[in-house]
Design a protein that fits this description.
Number of domains: 2
CATH superfamily of the largest domain: 2-enoyl-CoA Hydratase, Chain A, domain 1
Largest sheet: 8 strands, mixed
Order of helices and strands: HHHHEEEHHEHHEHEEHHHEHH
Oligomer: single chain
Radius of gyration: 22 Å
Length: about 325
Amino acid sequence: MDFARLTFEQPIIKLQERIAELRKLNAEGEIDFSSEVETLSVKLEQMKEQIYSNLSIWERVQVARHPRRPYTQDYINKIIDDWTELHGDRLFSDDQAIITGLGFLDGRRVAVIGHQKGRSTKEKLRHNFGSPRPEGFRKALRVMELAERFKLPIISFLDTAGAYPGIGSEERGVAEAIARNIRDMFTLTVPIIVIVIGEGGSGGALGIGVGDRVYMLQNGYYSVISPEGCAAILWRDGAKAQMAAEALKVSGNHLIELGIVDRFLPEPLGGAHNGLDETALIIKETLVTDLAELSKLPTDELLDLRYKKFRAMGRFTEKPA
């Protein structure tokens, strides 16, 4: 298994390299290292279980940003049949930081929207590293309105560090585009399921993140701001991102306790990038089950529950004047 060289994974990497070295020597046939390989292999699995079961919040943020972590298009390729991508906001351009389209999930026609980051340098630039401009949010809303017209459930995959804050994006009204999406998603009469598959950063995520069910993969994170951005504002030092991540409570049971996400979807040991098929199957089964349940709800009840879900998020106290 090819693990990334994240800092906390170094012991795993070293043990894997040792096992590979012994297997190579064993293949040469001079000395039998089979028992040593077996012993170290057991130790390796125990080490992976120990490390990945006890990740800190900051370490989970690192896994969420893993360069080989599956993106929206990877899950679409695995769980959506007859996928047809839809382009453009019909106002300015086609922002590929958000991809949208129609397809079939287990025989049910659905609309899918999601952030797409890209892997190669060329793809990253084309998708703007998954940070949408206003035309990306308007494209998403256009497809959601299309889904509303034809009574298609909506699936939304969140994976962005945040909306693009460049001058052009601001000039074209990125804040208004996000606000409009949030408002209008509360009025859509079709079921909406949201899954944070990696990063859930700020309004860039919330702009397509209003839903009847909000889930997050085990190693994702969801936050009002990136840890680096928070650290830069509070301490004027982006290097304190780890401290900010802990303070923001961007992952773990905190998000469930605050009602931000409904529950976590498990990932293979080491992260979704070490088992795309397994992760995609978990996502597909969740979507199929939930859409069957949500589709049975009367429209008024569906909208009321969606509204109440978001109104109940967070915790606060009031002090007497």
